[in-house]
Amino acid sequence: MKKKSAPVLPDLLAPGLDVVFCGTAPGTVSAQRKQYYAHPQNKFWRALHDIGLTPRLLQPSEYETLLSYRIGLTDIAKHVSGMDNQLPRGSLGKEAIADLRARIETYKPKVLAFTSLAGGRKFAGSDAPLGRQSVTIGETEVWILPSPSPAAHWNWQKNEKIWRALVAEIRKLR
For each of the chain's 174 residues, which pLDDT tens digit applies? Predict the structure, then answer.
């Protein structure tokens, strides 16, 4: 049996979280810096602050403080990094999805929010739309958000409202 390598980024998970944000895999800059959403042009940290999930703009190096705001972080592919089209074949496949599902079943956050349409569709199906999904993991709601990645900036402004809808749902679930 082949031993798995250490994760590129450790999960930031704990019981009782309001939301766990899930990427497909750490990007190159995030992998190099060992910090989630570390590319300077990534909108993730700005979005968390702008939509009211954090009281101030956090830096990627502060990602571990998200637990104090009842926010967690993970990725589908834990052992590779790069843009989606650079990932090894199968790294976002059934085994990775099953591992993600097991982590969510263990920690039971209120919401699992994929930070990309591509990642969300790996979980919820190839025709899944942005927003709240009909599938759940136990009591955990599943959402697909527009990507905050620099590669998806063209789509951000039109779909930022979905991030705001997520916050409204989280507040209802508290």
Answer: 455 689 999 999 999 999 999 999 999 999 999 999 999 999 999 999 999 999 999 999 999 999 999 999 999 999 999 988 889 988 999 999 999 999 999 999 999 999 999 999 999 999 999 999 999 999 999 999 998 987 766 666 777 899 999 999 999 988
Residue recorded with tokens 């990309």 = 116
Output the six-digit token pair for 123: 């979980």
In whole angstroms, what is the distance from residue 15 CA to residue 1 CA?
31
Domains, the chain, with CATH or none: 19-173 (3.40.470.10)
Q: What is the pTM of this model?
A: 0.95
Q: How many CB atoms lie within 10 A of CB 124?
A: 18
Is residue 39 within 8 A of residue 27, CB to CB? The reply is yes
List the structure tokens of 156: 């951000």
